[in-house]
Structures
1.
Amino acid sequence: MTRSLRRLERRPPLSRSVQKEIKAYVVENGLRPGDQLPSEAKLAEQLGVSRNSVREAVKSLETLGFLEARVGSGLYVGNFSLDLMLDLLPFDIAADGLDFAQAFSARQYLELGMAEDLLDGDRATAVAQLHEILAEWKAATDRNEYLPALDLSFHQTLSESVGNHVASRLVELLWEVRNRARANGVIQAPPDLPALYRRHLAIAKALEARDMPAYRAAIKEHYADVRAPAR
């Protein structure tokens, strides 16, 4: 049975509701890249919204590659790329205090959610890589120096070890949100470098020992301690 478009209530942000309804229409009707959609005028009529609201939603969906507007022809399902959507994620988050806190919580949820697969799998390579990173980290800490690239590499190693491309990209992109929050003064640079090093060392040791309670506790402690607001 073909799914119809549903009329939308007029409550902000309306363009987001239009996007959601168009995506649901495409997915639930099993449309494929290259399949044609109703015109903007038809969409506006069926959704019960203005042409401007539809146009704004269509432009956003075009940016994601979800739709393709062909001049003189109409709207078509695009070759949607998940990577493209993920690339745009940091720019869709304001990186203010609330957004940063939620993005940081999302990173914690990801790493806690990956814990079982990570500890149950072949973690020897990951452990070896983490110890290499930590050796450089310790040297930098002894110089009273913080190297963000090592921090990112540590967390990427965890996510890449479960073989989930999307999870790895999300960790990387949520890290970019953190960088924007730091640039905007929402958070401060790590004030206690030895403590930061020890927290990451505890994560690596728990992984190596296959100690789930210790691993989850180390992850939670790490994220709790680095939420400090800028001062």
2.
Amino acid sequence: MEKTVRMLHVFPSFLQGGTELRIIRVLNGLPFPARHTILALDGRFAAAANFASGIQFELVTKPGPRGGFSGLRELRGLILRSNPDLLLTYNWGAIEAVLAGRLSARCAIIHNESGFGTDEANSRKSRRVWARRLLLSGIHTTIVNSQTLLNIARTEYKLPAGKINLIRNGIDVKRFVPGRNDALRDQLGAGPDTVIFGFIGKHREEKNVAMMVEAFAATKLSNAILVLVGDGPCRRQLESLAQRVASPGRIVFPGEVQDPVPYLQAFDVFVISSFTEQTPNALLEAMACGLPAIGTDVGDIGEILTAGDAPVTVHSADVAAMSRSMQALAENPDLRARLAAQNRQRCVERYSLDRMVHEFSAIYQGAIR
């Protein structure tokens, strides 16, 4: 029988975020037996509901306080007790676990970087850059999910080429497929000829959803609505903004949903307006569902949405440009159809889940060997 690999994952938080859901998709698809210990430093584990049946996992909370010598000692003790074959850490919020892992010297360490908050969207904090340089140069590898992050790891963190791996996000292109959900369109208040612009994601500051609201209001389109699926700390502010700038029913807030597919199949255009992204899962899911998309030119979005003559990427502060893009797509169904087909094909060819799982699995097995 093949040996079960013990994997200890350290997350700042294990909520329903892009990093957590991406890694769960990888773990669900691994071709070798594994047992996963999930440590969420904030004690929150909502993403665990997405593990497939039969996946072996346990959820643990960090004993003692975070930070400082005592926190580092507790982390090191937990690693030693877990005795993993692999230690996997995720983003800056788990960087202390990299140090604890190096001090325990028991297993290979793989760090994952998948983006920044608004405080590091445009430039990195020097203290964090130096910490990454010192800690990540001595582990097995760092995995990044965008060309933008790969360049940062090389030029700012000074990591050698052999210590960095680029694995682009992958989407289940058999689950996320084109469709037309007329029943849900009716529930959202859309008529047969209504163009639905949609967004699915957390209503957080870095998602910059207010820009999307203002851009949509500026179009003054009579045959369009904006649907903002999700929840988060900015939702009340967004609802207030929507009431000020748009007529009732023109901007809809359905709340958080478990399955995004029905909404993606109800939309006509997907919109993402973030200040900071890398390779956003929500955008790839929309593309796989055959949607044209408008995005801000941050991270790898400009590369993902290469569509020649289409006005699909705009600066993250340019409300007028996003409004023009919305108007152009609303008024041109042929352009929408052409971009939809291009996006679906691009997602199938470059961003499939099978490809992503295979690449992660190869790195894990190489680290164990």
